[in-house]
Structure formats: structure tokens, C-alpha cells
Amino acid sequence: MHEAHLSKISIHPGSSKMYQDLKSHFLWTKMKKEIAAYVARCHTCCRVKAIHMKPAGLLQLLSVPEWKWEKVSVAFITGLPTTRKGNDLIWVIVDRFTKSAHFIQVKTRYRPPEYADLYMAEIVKLHGIPKTIISDRVP
Asked: Tell me, what CATH number does 80's domain have?
């Protein structure tokens, strides 16, 4: 491993590349784990890691709501056992001003129109239509 990692041809290739190069010539048990551990102990590899992502932008703070239920956030609690009615998610709708919340049982197979109807039936009838709805999910 030492020779393959420091050879003049490859020069600190990283664990994936080193594994691909070595597996054509050698094979032993836990080979991939041992190569990953060896590369992780290399000081040069740890210092000179190329970052393959765009730098993250600055966080944008959310404005403070001025009145209750004008700005809400929504989230989902997943990985729950299925109920008798077939619900397996909890849809959490939180008022950002008062921090009060509604917890609604839903099914994972619901589509956006079904969530809209449920929102109208459960939230809008009690609190009115909010100015903004913030979610961490894709639109």
C-alpha cells in the first residue's frame, strides 16, 4: 500500500482511486477498509483535499413576524409506523410568531393538491391565510 500510495505515477491518489488501481493486481479481506484507513492517516492527503462543491452562500435570516399566523413553517416527521387509517407521516405546521403548532397525520402518498386541501380545512379555517409558508422541502 505504501508503494502504491507514494509512487511517482499516482502521487497520493485518494482511497477510491488507490483501491481501483490495487484491486486489479491484489485482493485481500477488508481491502477497501484498510486502504481507506491508510489514506486517512496520510498527512499530505488530509491537508490537500480538493473541494468539489461550490462554496455555500451566506445564511439569510428570516424576518420576524409582526402578527400571529401570518408567517408559518412546515415540516414532516417521517419514519413512523403506519396507523390503522394508513397514515405514516406527521405534518407539522408552526406559527413562527407564537410558536404554536398543529400536528396532522398524513400519508406519504399524498400529492400537493391533497396537502393544499388539508391545509385549507385544518389551518385556514382557524387562523386565516398566511403571508408566507416556509419549508425545507423542494417546491
From this structure: 3.30.420.10
In this prediction, residue 58 carries a pLDDT of 81
Query: How does 52-70 read in b/e, with b if 16+ C-beta sit within 10 Å?
Result: eeeeeeeeeeeeebeebbb
Whole-prediction pTM = 0.57
Q: Looking at residue 3, what is its pLDDT?
A: 81
Residues spanned by the domain of 15? 2-47
Closest Cα partner for 38 from 13, 70, 62?
13
Judge if 32 and 76 occupy the same domain. no
